[in-house]
Description:
The chain is of the alpha+beta class. The chain has three helices and two strands. It is elongated. The two termini are 33 Å apart.
Amino acid sequence: xxxxxxxxxxxxxxxxxxxxxxxxxxxxxxxxxxxxxxxxxxxxxxxxxxxxxxxxxxxxxxxxxxxxxxxxxxxxxxxxxxxxxxxxxxx
Length: 91
């Protein structure tokens, strides 16, 4: 799922090769979303107070939100990098 040989034109007219490794981005998102943090305490507290079903629902919601946030951040960062001159040395 690696996109190669895709180029983008920079403001200076120079072509910038784009290489996006989507599986690597998704693996990083998975690792960051399963690492313990405040969400772990929320899921544990909800599970103890309201039962397994509520805990699993909250965990699913947190996982979905984290994945969407990660993909949006990755796409946004790529757009910011392409829009700025520091990506390409046009000397």
